[in-house]
Amino acid sequence: MSVPEVVRFALRGLSANKLRSALTMLGILIGVAAVILLVAVGNGSAKAISDRIEALGTNTVTVLSTGRGGSGATSLTTGMAAALADPALAPDVRSVSPVVSSSVTITYGRSDHEVGSFVGTTPGWFAASNTPIGAGSGFTADDEAQGRRVVVLGRTVVDELFAGADPIGKQVTAGGALFTVVGVLGPKSSTGFQDANDTAVAPLSAVRQVLTGYGALTSILVEAKDAGRVDAVESEVATILDQRMSGAARASSATTPYRIQNASQLLETQTETAGTFTTLLGAVAAISLLVGGIGITNIMLVTVTERTREIGIRKALGAPRRVILTQFLVEATLLSVIGGVLGVAAALIGSSFEIAGVRPVIVPSSVGLALGVSIAIGLFFGGLPASRAARLRPIDALRYE
Amino acid sequence: MSRPVLEVRDLRKTYGQGEATVHALAGVSLTVHRGDYVAVMGSSGSGKSTLMNILGALDVPTHGTYLLDGVDVGELADRQLALARNRLIGFVFQAFNLIPRMSAVANVELPLAYAGIKPGERRRRALAALDVVGLADRARHEPSRLSGGQQQRVAVARALVTEPALLLADEPTGNLDSRSTADVLAVFDRLNATGRTIVIITHEDEVAARAKRLVRLVDGRVVQDTRQSAIHRPPAGAFAGRHAG
Question: Which residues form the ABC transporter domain (chain B) (predicted)?
Fold first, then answer.
């Protein structure tokens, strides 16, 4: 008998009990779709986390003061910031941006908005912090030197204050002083609870003059020349800062008075966490596939047992063992392949929706694995009882109850 | 006389072991020649069904040889056995044993499919066989929509579609009413009249009366073997006008 003939026989066998065939396929469909989708959700959340962290810029380190404000010997100063931009002691540093920030209410006309972080910094900050200008322009080094009151607003601030009008060139009030809006930041994905777009950026000198005073800096953003040099930058920064901060102050506290944050470290930790999460989801899904597999096994066993008599009839009519075995194997394969492919399709459709706030990202290997496992289960547990029945003497198969 | 279609020598079949041993066949020897119409009679437990299953190559004897068309069946491997069942033997069961949810014509086609015959040719021959048993108009019906007699005639069509040398029937009329019995027996008579060898198991005297030879089994042994009519003559029950096919 030819191959298409055997396939036609198998199809006829499947269509003889449509409901059962459909239910078996449904079991495989759910198992396969669950594995692919859950792994995709885990993968998607991992990807979302790493995207957010990468948006922070992976080639920067942030120096934060651990001191409690004030202007003691341990606080960060513009002098320190300037010292970090030393090509001899810190050859891997591309730029240094001192940062002050505070929360302030901005007013325009009759509307006002409390800005989460009103940042005062130098022009290099835009590039270093991976914050591109969306419209208009940033401020210049000259603006910073002259202490001009210009400001670049974040999206949220623009939406709150201007409600659709073009903000560029308008004047807003912050901390009792007028600032001219020169630009709008591009939209930025949020890094957690804080709205990254709820911000305003102005020259350091102007912000210190108007809002924060000339005390300590909030942080210093140091950009490395290359993402791979971040570790080197970190140690260079530490060396310089240790020199600058007085020995007395160091002795008074057990820990260093500053903290260096590194985005790539954060990324690594987060990626690891997300990996664990994905594995966990995958394990849960694998269990569901296993349960689905047991379902297939059960149905296959029942089908073959029930059809042992039919196998007996076929043998009595002169069907060789191989043909019977092939027919049942093809039936099992068709069931699991069709169910599996439908499962993949369901997973692909499902992955285009957001699930629990996560956009699933399909892992190709999970598709192959889920499909492979379901087909293997179908083949094995369909083939095993079929080969047992095909080996029976026709009379024993015919008498089988 | 030519080579016998079927020849068994000292056939024995036992079930169970030790004290519980049952001798279903206790040394049966039988030779059937081409064109013969043999009825095997016996009470229940006489071993006639066991004999039939062995003759149909569905079961194997514990002891003894079975030559089918001169070939020792005991020597055959699975593949050749399948071939022998397919080409040399047509088997009609008491319980019809049609495959459910397959149309009558698909059931009749089945042995041809296993013989590797092309679908077009298969369909043509299956319809011809259904015509022989007078069921050409029921070809598309599934077994569940046919009466017992019709189902048995489909089973007969399935048994003869490969044109086997030997037609074996295990109480083919056991589950049928008298009218259906007459239909099925008429088909057998016609087939025998066209030269087909038939061995039939029955416990009904009127069925046995139509055969050319009567073999009676008691406790796994042949106790009577009588010729009722000549082997080369049409069977007693066959009507004069031969049916085409």
Answer: 6-244
Instruction: Give pLDDT, residue A255.
Output: 58
Structure tokens at A277: 């999460």
Average pLDDT of chain B, as a whole number: 87
Suggest the residue from A307, A317, A326, A391 to mutate for an interface test with chain B (most B CBs closer than 10 A).
Answer: A317
Structure tokens at B227: 């010729």
Please give, rounded to a whole number of angstroms, the shortest distance from the CA of B179 to a CA of chain A: 26
ipTM for the predicted complex comes to 0.88
As a whole number, mean pLDDT of residues A166-183 equals 86
* Residue B181 near residue B194 (C-beta atoms within 8 A): no
| Residue A73 pLDDT level (bands cut at 50, 70, 90) | low
Q: How far apart are CA A304 and CA A385, in angstroms?
A: 6
DSSP assignment of B73-136, as one string? GGG--HHHHHHHHHHTEEEE-TT--PPTTS-HHHHHHHHHHHTT--HHHHHHHHHHHHHHTT-G
Q: Do A318 and B60 touch (CB under 8 A)?
A: no
Residues of chain B positioned with their CB less than 8 A from the CB of A395: 53, 58-59
Closest in B83, B98, B106 to A318, CB measured: B83
Amino acid in position A319: A
Average pLDDT of the segment spanning A157-179: 84
